[in-house]
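Page 47, continued from p. 46.
Same chain as before, 412 aa.
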Amino acid sequence: MITKFLGMYRVKLYHLRRNVKFVVMKSVYDTDKHLHHVYDVKGSSTGRDAKPGEAVKKDNDVRRALPDGAFVLDYNLRDRLRAQVERDCQWLKSMKIMDYSMLIGVHNIAHSSNKRGVMPSPMKSKSKVVSFENESESNAQTISQNVAGYEGDEISNESSLDASYMTLDNYLADDDNDSYLEGSSQKRNKQSLINDNLLPNDVSVKVVKCADALSEERRRESENVEKAIEDMYWPFHRYYDLQGRRRLKPVRDDLIAEENRRRNGCKLVQSQSNEENPYFKLLSSSSAPSEFGYTEIYQIPSFEKPLSERKDGGFMMDCTNIDTPFKLSLPGAPHSIEYCDGKIFYMGIIDILQQFNIRKRIEARWRRLGGKGWEAASCVHPTIYADRFLRFFDEYTNNPDIQGEKEDASPS
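Result:
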Protein backbone atom coordinates (compact mmCIF):
# COMPACT_ATOMS: atom_id res chain seq x y z
CA MET A 1 0.00 0.00 0.00
CA ILE A 2 2.97 2.32 0.39
CA THR A 3 3.40 4.61 -2.60
CA LYS A 4 6.36 3.70 -4.79
CA PHE A 5 9.27 6.08 -5.22
CA LEU A 6 10.38 6.18 -8.84
CA GLY A 7 13.45 8.34 -8.46
CA MET A 8 15.19 11.29 -6.81
CA TYR A 9 16.52 14.17 -8.91
CA ARG A 10 18.46 17.39 -8.51
CA VAL A 11 18.01 20.44 -10.72
CA LYS A 12 20.64 23.16 -10.80
CA LEU A 13 19.13 26.64 -11.06
CA TYR A 14 22.11 28.71 -12.11
CA HIS A 15 20.21 32.00 -12.24
CA LEU A 16 19.17 31.51 -8.59
CA ARG A 17 22.49 29.93 -7.56
CA ARG A 18 20.81 27.05 -5.83
CA ASN A 19 19.96 23.37 -6.30
CA VAL A 20 16.46 21.95 -6.05
CA LYS A 21 16.02 18.30 -5.08
CA PHE A 22 12.76 16.46 -5.56
CA VAL A 23 11.42 12.93 -5.69
CA VAL A 24 9.02 11.39 -8.21
CA MET A 25 6.38 9.06 -6.77
CA LYS A 26 3.78 6.86 -8.41
CA SER A 27 0.31 8.33 -8.17
CA VAL A 28 -2.31 6.60 -6.06
CA TYR A 29 -4.84 7.66 -8.68
CA ASP A 30 -3.32 5.95 -11.71
CA THR A 31 -6.66 5.85 -13.50
CA ASP A 32 -8.69 7.67 -16.12
CA LYS A 33 -11.81 7.52 -13.93
CA HIS A 34 -13.19 10.74 -12.49
CA LEU A 35 -12.81 10.91 -8.70
CA HIS A 36 -15.93 12.23 -7.05
CA HIS A 37 -14.49 12.27 -3.51
CA VAL A 38 -10.97 12.41 -2.07
CA TYR A 39 -10.02 11.68 1.56
CA ASP A 40 -6.79 12.10 3.52
CA VAL A 41 -7.04 10.14 6.79
CA LYS A 42 -4.49 9.59 9.56
CA GLY A 43 -6.53 8.27 12.48
CA SER A 44 -6.20 11.41 14.59
CA SER A 45 -9.03 13.81 15.37
CA THR A 46 -7.44 17.10 16.51
CA GLY A 47 -7.59 19.54 13.61
CA ARG A 48 -8.75 16.86 11.20
CA ASP A 49 -11.78 18.67 9.77
CA ALA A 50 -11.92 19.88 6.20
CA LYS A 51 -12.52 23.60 5.83
CA PRO A 52 -15.57 24.78 3.88
CA GLY A 53 -14.87 24.51 0.19
CA GLU A 54 -11.97 22.09 0.51
CA ALA A 55 -12.17 19.16 -1.89
CA VAL A 56 -10.04 16.83 0.24
CA LYS A 57 -11.98 15.54 3.24
CA LYS A 58 -10.30 14.41 6.47
CA ASP A 59 -10.73 12.05 9.39
CA ASN A 60 -13.63 13.69 11.18
CA ASP A 61 -15.54 14.04 7.90
CA VAL A 62 -15.20 10.28 7.45
CA ARG A 63 -16.33 9.63 11.04
CA ARG A 64 -19.46 11.73 10.56
CA ALA A 65 -20.38 9.74 7.44
CA LEU A 66 -20.07 6.34 9.17
CA PRO A 67 -21.53 3.76 9.07
CA ASP A 68 -23.36 4.50 5.81
CA GLY A 69 -20.29 6.11 4.29
CA ALA A 70 -17.94 3.22 5.03
CA PHE A 71 -15.62 2.00 2.28
CA VAL A 72 -17.23 -1.43 2.06
CA LEU A 73 -15.04 -4.13 0.50
CA ASP A 74 -15.40 -7.85 -0.01
CA TYR A 75 -14.45 -9.52 3.28
CA ASN A 76 -11.69 -11.64 1.68
CA LEU A 77 -10.22 -8.58 0.01
CA ARG A 78 -10.56 -6.56 3.20
CA ASP A 79 -8.66 -9.20 5.19
CA ARG A 80 -5.82 -9.21 2.65
CA LEU A 81 -5.80 -5.42 2.52
CA ARG A 82 -5.72 -5.14 6.30
CA ALA A 83 -2.84 -7.62 6.53
CA GLN A 84 -0.88 -5.52 4.04
CA VAL A 85 -1.62 -2.28 5.91
CA GLU A 86 -0.53 -3.95 9.15
CA ARG A 87 2.78 -5.06 7.58
CA ASP A 88 3.35 -1.57 6.23
CA CYS A 89 2.65 -0.03 9.64
CA GLN A 90 5.03 -2.45 11.32
CA TRP A 91 7.79 -1.48 8.91
CA LEU A 92 7.11 2.25 9.29
CA LYS A 93 7.10 1.83 13.07
CA SER A 94 10.46 0.05 12.96
CA MET A 95 11.87 2.94 10.90
CA LYS A 96 10.56 5.49 13.47
CA ILE A 97 8.30 7.09 10.85
CA MET A 98 5.02 8.82 11.68
CA ASP A 99 2.59 11.41 10.30
CA TYR A 100 1.81 9.33 7.21
CA SER A 101 -1.74 9.12 5.90
CA MET A 102 -4.02 6.97 3.79
CA LEU A 103 -5.07 8.74 0.61
CA ILE A 104 -8.44 7.49 -0.67
CA GLY A 105 -10.17 8.38 -3.91
CA VAL A 106 -13.75 7.35 -4.66
CA HIS A 107 -15.26 6.94 -8.12
CA ASN A 108 -19.03 6.55 -8.31
CA ILE A 109 -20.11 4.10 -10.99
CA ALA A 110 -22.98 5.73 -12.83
CA HIS A 111 -26.24 3.85 -13.06
CA SER A 112 -26.48 1.89 -16.30
CA SER A 113 -29.81 3.44 -17.28
CA ASN A 114 -28.18 6.87 -17.16
CA LYS A 115 -25.71 5.91 -19.88
CA ARG A 116 -26.77 6.67 -23.41
CA GLY A 117 -26.53 4.17 -26.17
CA VAL A 118 -28.30 1.11 -27.49
CA MET A 119 -27.10 -2.27 -28.58
CA PRO A 120 -25.74 -2.30 -32.12
CA SER A 121 -27.89 -3.91 -34.74
CA PRO A 122 -26.53 -7.07 -36.36
CA MET A 123 -23.76 -6.39 -38.84
CA LYS A 124 -23.55 -7.83 -42.28
CA SER A 125 -21.32 -10.84 -41.85
CA LYS A 126 -19.63 -13.45 -43.88
CA SER A 127 -17.43 -16.46 -43.38
CA LYS A 128 -13.74 -15.64 -43.30
CA VAL A 129 -10.98 -18.23 -43.64
CA VAL A 130 -7.45 -17.49 -42.45
CA SER A 131 -4.92 -20.16 -43.32
CA PHE A 132 -1.24 -20.66 -42.54
CA GLU A 133 1.20 -22.83 -44.42
CA ASN A 134 2.04 -26.05 -42.66
CA GLU A 135 5.01 -28.36 -42.91
CA SER A 136 2.91 -31.47 -42.40
CA GLU A 137 -0.73 -31.69 -43.24
CA SER A 138 -1.26 -34.61 -40.90
CA ASN A 139 -0.49 -32.49 -37.83
CA ALA A 140 -2.76 -29.66 -38.92
CA GLN A 141 -5.64 -28.63 -36.77
CA THR A 142 -8.67 -26.52 -37.50
CA ILE A 143 -9.96 -24.05 -34.97
CA SER A 144 -13.39 -22.54 -35.56
CA GLN A 145 -15.00 -19.92 -33.42
CA ASN A 146 -17.73 -17.31 -33.73
CA VAL A 147 -16.43 -13.78 -34.10
CA ALA A 148 -17.66 -10.67 -35.83
CA GLY A 149 -16.53 -10.35 -39.42
CA TYR A 150 -17.62 -7.42 -41.49
CA GLU A 151 -16.12 -4.88 -43.84
CA GLY A 152 -16.60 -1.15 -43.45
CA ASP A 153 -17.51 -0.57 -47.11
CA GLU A 154 -20.12 -3.35 -47.05
CA ILE A 155 -22.27 -1.93 -44.25
CA SER A 156 -25.74 -1.13 -45.48
CA ASN A 157 -28.10 1.41 -44.03
CA GLU A 158 -30.12 -1.16 -42.11
CA SER A 159 -27.01 -2.74 -40.55
CA SER A 160 -25.22 0.41 -39.52
CA LEU A 161 -24.63 1.26 -35.86
CA ASP A 162 -26.98 3.55 -34.06
CA ALA A 163 -25.30 6.92 -33.58
CA SER A 164 -26.26 7.02 -29.92
CA TYR A 165 -24.11 3.94 -29.27
CA MET A 166 -20.98 5.77 -30.40
CA THR A 167 -20.66 7.78 -27.19
CA LEU A 168 -17.77 8.32 -24.82
CA ASP A 169 -19.61 6.52 -22.00
CA ASN A 170 -19.59 3.28 -23.97
CA TYR A 171 -15.92 3.52 -24.88
CA LEU A 172 -14.89 4.39 -21.31
CA ALA A 173 -17.14 1.92 -19.54
CA ASP A 174 -16.50 1.30 -15.86
CA ASP A 175 -16.29 -2.46 -16.21
CA ASP A 176 -14.92 -3.51 -19.59
CA ASN A 177 -12.33 -6.16 -20.33
CA ASP A 178 -9.51 -3.66 -20.64
CA SER A 179 -10.02 -2.51 -17.04
CA TYR A 180 -8.75 -5.79 -15.57
CA LEU A 181 -5.43 -7.60 -15.49
CA GLU A 182 -4.81 -10.59 -17.70
CA GLY A 183 -6.32 -13.70 -16.15
CA SER A 184 -8.80 -11.82 -13.96
CA SER A 185 -12.02 -13.60 -13.07
CA GLN A 186 -13.86 -10.34 -13.79
CA LYS A 187 -12.99 -10.46 -17.46
CA ARG A 188 -15.74 -11.47 -19.82
CA ASN A 189 -14.68 -14.14 -22.26
CA LYS A 190 -15.58 -14.20 -25.89
CA GLN A 191 -18.29 -16.79 -25.41
CA SER A 192 -20.18 -14.53 -23.00
CA LEU A 193 -20.02 -11.73 -25.52
CA ILE A 194 -21.59 -14.00 -28.12
CA ASN A 195 -24.33 -15.03 -25.71
CA ASP A 196 -25.09 -11.37 -25.05
CA ASN A 197 -25.68 -10.88 -28.79
CA LEU A 198 -22.80 -8.47 -29.08
CA LEU A 199 -21.50 -10.52 -31.99
CA PRO A 200 -23.38 -12.21 -34.82
CA ASN A 201 -23.56 -15.97 -34.59
CA ASP A 202 -23.33 -16.80 -38.29
CA VAL A 203 -19.69 -15.86 -38.74
CA SER A 204 -17.04 -18.53 -38.80
CA VAL A 205 -13.30 -17.99 -38.80
CA LYS A 206 -11.20 -21.03 -39.57
CA VAL A 207 -7.54 -21.03 -38.57
CA VAL A 208 -5.40 -23.79 -39.98
CA LYS A 209 -2.03 -24.18 -38.28
CA CYS A 210 0.45 -26.93 -37.60
CA ALA A 211 0.14 -27.81 -33.92
CA ASP A 212 3.82 -28.58 -33.38
CA ALA A 213 5.03 -25.47 -35.21
CA LEU A 214 2.52 -23.32 -33.35
CA SER A 215 3.52 -24.61 -29.92
CA GLU A 216 7.24 -24.27 -30.63
CA GLU A 217 6.80 -20.76 -31.95
CA ARG A 218 4.78 -19.73 -28.93
CA ARG A 219 7.30 -21.32 -26.56
CA ARG A 220 10.21 -19.38 -28.11
CA GLU A 221 8.19 -16.18 -28.04
CA SER A 222 7.26 -16.71 -24.37
CA GLU A 223 10.89 -17.42 -23.45
CA ASN A 224 12.03 -14.20 -25.15
CA VAL A 225 9.35 -12.21 -23.35
CA GLU A 226 10.28 -13.70 -19.97
CA LYS A 227 13.96 -12.98 -20.65
CA ALA A 228 13.12 -9.32 -21.32
CA ILE A 229 11.00 -9.17 -18.14
CA GLU A 230 13.84 -10.70 -16.13
CA ASP A 231 16.30 -8.11 -17.44
CA MET A 232 13.97 -5.27 -16.39
CA TYR A 233 12.52 -6.46 -13.09
CA TRP A 234 14.97 -8.93 -11.57
CA PRO A 235 14.69 -10.20 -8.82
CA PHE A 236 10.94 -9.43 -8.94
CA HIS A 237 10.45 -10.58 -12.51
CA ARG A 238 7.98 -13.27 -11.44
CA TYR A 239 5.64 -10.53 -10.21
CA TYR A 240 5.29 -8.41 -13.38
CA ASP A 241 4.51 -8.73 -17.07
CA LEU A 242 6.18 -6.94 -19.96
CA GLN A 243 4.04 -3.80 -19.51
CA GLY A 244 4.95 -3.55 -15.81
CA ARG A 245 1.56 -4.75 -14.60
CA ARG A 246 1.24 -7.31 -11.84
CA ARG A 247 0.59 -10.94 -12.71
CA LEU A 248 -2.45 -12.70 -11.34
CA LYS A 249 -1.00 -16.15 -11.94
CA PRO A 250 2.60 -17.34 -11.53
CA VAL A 251 4.64 -17.90 -14.65
CA ARG A 252 5.70 -21.43 -15.53
CA ASP A 253 9.14 -22.39 -14.25
CA ASP A 254 10.26 -23.71 -17.62
CA LEU A 255 9.92 -20.21 -19.10
CA ILE A 256 12.19 -18.63 -16.48
CA ALA A 257 15.88 -18.60 -17.23
CA GLU A 258 18.28 -20.37 -14.86
CA GLU A 259 18.23 -18.16 -11.76
CA ASN A 260 21.34 -19.37 -10.00
CA ARG A 261 23.63 -17.41 -12.29
CA ARG A 262 25.56 -14.50 -10.77
CA ARG A 263 24.13 -11.07 -11.39
CA ASN A 264 26.22 -8.25 -9.95
CA GLY A 265 27.49 -10.61 -7.26
CA CYS A 266 23.96 -11.76 -6.36
CA LYS A 267 21.91 -14.83 -7.08
CA LEU A 268 18.56 -16.38 -6.20
CA VAL A 269 18.32 -19.79 -4.57
CA GLN A 270 14.96 -21.48 -4.14
CA SER A 271 14.17 -22.61 -0.62
CA GLN A 272 12.59 -26.01 -0.03
CA SER A 273 11.79 -25.48 3.64
CA ASN A 274 8.22 -24.33 3.05
CA GLU A 275 6.50 -26.08 0.16
CA GLU A 276 3.13 -24.39 0.75
CA ASN A 277 4.61 -20.90 0.56
CA PRO A 278 7.87 -21.19 -1.40
CA TYR A 279 10.27 -18.30 -1.46
CA PHE A 280 13.68 -17.40 -2.81
CA LYS A 281 16.75 -16.29 -0.91
CA LEU A 282 18.70 -13.36 -2.33
CA LEU A 283 22.37 -14.12 -1.71
CA SER A 284 25.35 -11.82 -2.12
CA SER A 285 29.10 -11.67 -1.64
CA SER A 286 31.41 -8.67 -1.79
CA SER A 287 34.37 -10.53 -3.25
CA ALA A 288 34.65 -13.22 -5.89
CA PRO A 289 32.10 -15.70 -4.52
CA SER A 290 32.84 -19.30 -3.93
CA GLU A 291 30.21 -21.99 -3.58
CA PHE A 292 29.86 -21.30 0.15
CA GLY A 293 30.83 -17.63 0.06
CA TYR A 294 27.34 -16.18 -0.10
CA THR A 295 25.54 -14.48 2.74
CA GLU A 296 21.75 -14.32 2.94
CA ILE A 297 20.19 -10.88 2.55
CA TYR A 298 16.47 -11.15 1.83
CA GLN A 299 13.76 -13.75 1.48
CA ILE A 300 11.65 -13.04 -1.60
CA PRO A 301 8.34 -14.89 -2.07
CA SER A 302 8.32 -16.76 -5.36
CA PHE A 303 4.94 -15.21 -6.20
CA GLU A 304 2.56 -12.79 -4.53
CA LYS A 305 -0.91 -12.18 -5.94
CA PRO A 306 -1.77 -8.48 -6.21
CA LEU A 307 -4.51 -7.05 -4.03
CA SER A 308 -6.44 -5.60 -6.96
CA GLU A 309 -7.36 -7.30 -10.22
CA ARG A 310 -7.82 -3.96 -11.94
CA LYS A 311 -5.11 -2.36 -14.04
CA ASP A 312 -5.57 0.95 -12.26
CA GLY A 313 -5.28 -0.67 -8.81
CA GLY A 314 -8.82 0.17 -7.73
CA PHE A 315 -10.93 -1.87 -5.31
CA MET A 316 -14.55 -2.57 -6.19
CA MET A 317 -17.21 -1.87 -3.59
CA ASP A 318 -18.96 -4.91 -2.17
CA CYS A 319 -22.63 -4.48 -3.11
CA THR A 320 -23.75 -7.93 -1.96
CA ASN A 321 -26.19 -6.71 0.71
CA ILE A 322 -26.88 -3.34 -0.88
CA ASP A 323 -29.84 -2.57 -3.11
CA THR A 324 -28.56 -1.01 -6.32
CA PRO A 325 -28.87 1.56 -7.66
CA PHE A 326 -28.60 3.63 -4.50
CA LYS A 327 -29.00 7.37 -4.14
CA LEU A 328 -26.16 9.83 -3.68
CA SER A 329 -26.46 13.51 -2.91
CA LEU A 330 -24.23 15.77 -4.95
CA PRO A 331 -21.75 18.04 -3.06
CA GLY A 332 -23.07 21.56 -2.87
CA ALA A 333 -26.48 20.51 -4.21
CA PRO A 334 -28.33 18.62 -1.47
CA HIS A 335 -31.58 18.59 -3.45
CA SER A 336 -29.98 16.91 -6.47
CA ILE A 337 -29.97 13.13 -6.44
CA GLU A 338 -27.64 10.89 -8.42
CA TYR A 339 -28.09 7.13 -8.81
CA CYS A 340 -25.07 4.91 -8.48
CA ASP A 341 -24.42 1.22 -9.22
CA GLY A 342 -21.39 1.01 -6.96
CA LYS A 343 -18.05 2.59 -6.19
CA ILE A 344 -14.37 2.06 -6.94
CA PHE A 345 -11.87 2.90 -4.19
CA TYR A 346 -8.25 3.91 -4.79
CA MET A 347 -6.04 3.68 -1.69
CA GLY A 348 -2.40 4.29 -0.91
CA ILE A 349 -0.16 5.32 2.01
CA ILE A 350 1.64 8.61 1.38
CA ASP A 351 3.89 11.07 3.27
CA ILE A 352 6.26 8.44 4.67
CA LEU A 353 9.35 10.65 4.97
CA GLN A 354 8.66 12.21 8.38
CA GLN A 355 10.75 10.62 11.09
CA PHE A 356 10.14 10.99 14.81
CA ASN A 357 13.09 13.35 15.21
CA ILE A 358 14.02 15.75 17.99
CA ARG A 359 11.55 18.41 16.83
CA LYS A 360 8.68 15.90 16.74
CA ARG A 361 9.68 14.47 20.11
CA ILE A 362 9.55 17.94 21.69
CA GLU A 363 6.16 18.61 20.08
CA ALA A 364 4.77 15.28 21.32
CA ARG A 365 6.12 15.89 24.83
CA TRP A 366 4.67 19.42 24.90
CA ARG A 367 1.24 18.12 23.85
CA ARG A 368 1.44 15.39 26.49
CA LEU A 369 2.21 17.90 29.20
CA GLY A 370 -0.88 19.81 28.09
CA GLY A 371 -3.02 17.10 29.62
CA LYS A 372 -6.06 15.42 28.17
CA GLY A 373 -6.41 14.96 24.41
CA TRP A 374 -2.75 14.45 23.48
CA GLU A 375 -3.49 11.02 21.94
CA ALA A 376 -5.88 12.62 19.44
CA ALA A 377 -3.11 14.75 17.91
CA SER A 378 -1.18 13.72 14.81
CA CYS A 379 2.21 14.08 16.48
CA VAL A 380 2.60 10.99 18.67
CA HIS A 381 5.14 8.21 19.03
CA PRO A 382 5.39 5.92 15.95
CA THR A 383 4.10 2.93 17.92
CA ILE A 384 0.97 4.79 19.04
CA TYR A 385 0.57 6.27 15.57
CA ALA A 386 0.71 2.85 13.83
CA ASP A 387 -1.80 1.24 16.22
CA ARG A 388 -4.21 4.14 15.86
CA PHE A 389 -3.81 4.16 12.08
CA LEU A 390 -4.74 0.47 11.91
CA ARG A 391 -7.71 0.87 14.28
CA PHE A 392 -9.14 3.66 12.16
CA PHE A 393 -8.69 1.51 9.04
CA ASP A 394 -10.89 -1.08 10.72
CA GLU A 395 -13.51 1.60 11.39
CA TYR A 396 -13.88 3.07 7.92
CA THR A 397 -13.70 -0.29 6.08
CA ASN A 398 -16.08 -2.13 8.39
CA ASN A 399 -19.22 -3.45 6.71
CA PRO A 400 -22.17 -2.31 8.87
CA ASP A 401 -24.33 -5.23 7.69
CA ILE A 402 -21.77 -7.85 8.75
CA GLN A 403 -21.18 -6.04 12.03
CA GLY A 404 -24.92 -6.03 12.69
CA GLU A 405 -25.15 -9.76 12.01
CA LYS A 406 -22.34 -10.42 14.48
CA GLU A 407 -24.04 -8.36 17.17
CA ASP A 408 -27.35 -10.20 16.62
CA ALA A 409 -25.61 -13.57 16.81
CA SER A 410 -23.75 -12.72 20.02
CA PRO A 411 -25.39 -14.06 23.22
CA SER A 412 -27.13 -11.52 25.41
